[in-house]
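Hey, sorry to bother you again with one of my protein questions. I've been puzzling over a protein and I'd love to understand its fold better. Take your time with it, there's no hurry, and the full record follows here:
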Amino acid sequence: MGQLDGRIAIVTGSDSGIGQGIAEELAREGADIAITYLHDEAGANETRKKVEVCGRRAFVTRLDQADEASVTALFDGVDQALGTPDILVNNAGATDIKQAPFAQTPTADFDRMIKVDLYGPFFCSREFVRRRESGGKIINITSVHEVTPSPKYTAYNAAKGGLQTFTRGLALELAERNTTVNAIAPGLTRAPPTIERIESREGQQKIEKNIPLRRAGEPREIGRLAVYLASSDADYVTGQSFTIDGGLETNWGQGA
């Protein structure tokens, strides 16, 4: 028996990387999975195969989480295909915005990052709560940059910092209905946007210098933490952000 037998989970942006790893691990523990993608339908169908290999049901749909109507359509589809969701993992985020000095940051880039990475979890969480009388688990995927920003990533820093505070505030408000809200803050993790950087010589040197465990994280490792937060073992855990970064955040500032 799995920890999540009979549960229904939505994992946004589960066509690759961390989202795919989370979807697979939740399925291994018995959850049926709603898989969403924005552009990579083939990747989403690969996640579907991984879920079905675990003996669980899968539902695949396109989602533009910056659009309220698209979010509503997602939840309507999940209700019809799988049932009312018990678990929401807000993982999807904007990955197509390049770093830039603050003064050269285009307004459109800042607006898009906030719309996708902050409004998106807001829209999805609100729809999740509206469709449940009580209970349920919300897990927001933030970043180590929620508290330790990087230069030239102003919009990303702002979105992830906002998502951390959103997590904490929502946890307080939803506690009376026994809905828990937590965050996972990954560091460098092997996923499509980071693989080239991780595997380069320069990337390896930075990893060895800055990450005490001397490697990038794997999506499965984020997935196992999500399983815990989605399970009854974490019923007394809410309003928290769990950093999983190989010691990166703890190491920042050493040698100054």
DSSP finds nine helices and seven strands in the chain. The first helix runs from residue 17 to 28. The longest strand covers residues 180-186. The chain has a mean pLDDT of 94.
